[in-house]
Amino acid sequence: MKKLYEEISARLSGGEKLAVASIARRIGSAPRSQGTRCAILPDGSILGTIGGGLMEAKTQEAGAKALSDNNVEYLKMRLKEKELAASGMICGGSVDILVAPWGEAEVPVSEGLSALYSSGNHGALLTKWDGEGNALAIGLYFNGQWHSSSGLTEELEEAAKEALFNAANVVRVDDDGGLFAEFIERERAPLIVMGAGHVGRALANVATVAGFAVTVIDDRSEFANEENLPWAESVLCRPFEGALEEAGVDENTFIVIATRGHMGDTICALDALRSDAPYVGMIGSKRKRGMVLKKMSDEGISEERITSAVRTPVGLSIGAQTPEEIAVSIVAEMIQIRRQNG
Questions:
Q1: Which strand ranges, in their side-by-side order, compose the sheet holding 177-185?
Q2: pTM of the predicted model, to two decimals?
Q3: pLDDT for position 53
Q4: Topology of domain 189-341, per CATH?
Q5: Taking residues 238-246, what's their average pLDDT?
């Protein structure tokens, strides 16, 4: 989601206009949850997705209309069984979708959203419009600050605090217009697990439950597959060398190395320390870890970089022995670091 807002911000700063669509309410088993978002460009193309099918097609139409009329559109989609089948959607339920035109005035909003997702904090994205669909205010409230080109009114602040307090969206719509305060929390922190053995598999499971977006990499097809790793968001079966570049690493990415030997560990550790990853956890015997650390130093990795990023032995000291217990200790350490940095 952070990347979506970075692209939105770049387009708005360049003078483009677009329409931002958000799922405001969901009833039943609609395909995507509240907070799912996309942007519709003037040519009708879309950035991101809110679920595909007929729902997304109608959202694109509303986005085009919002841009043409420069008005907020509030869709109440109650799809019947026949419409669901025609759209290819297998999920039932219904959704309300807010579509709002964003322009250069919303640059502070998109920039604020990128900052929020990096901070680990919560916030509220607010849109207020009148009975004619005119946007009266679009802004982001977090850490007690208002990111918007319009002023913060008492009504907006109260709605923001209500959304934050309840960790839920606030939606008020009538003939005179509406107010939508969307509760937003940081997107899941990315975790890359190098190795799909017993510990890597257990770690993918525990980390996903704890709110991490997990990618698992292994060069063995019998391990690196979706059947073996149903919890992972992504599974890559490929050689370890260069795999991190394919997976994508930034300053928020956690990396845990749990390959089957010191050669694999060394390749992964060197690539990890040449990236922006702030956390590189290593599993293995004292002897194996020592060999890998020496190789890092021999390859010119600075002592400062090694000391600041490498966790070995990885995980909090809780006497963990089984793969599942080790996974819990690692995830606990990552949560501790993530919250301290946030």
A1: 145-147, 135-142, 122-130, 177-185, 170-174
A2: 0.57
A3: 75
A4: Rossmann fold (3.40.50)
A5: 92
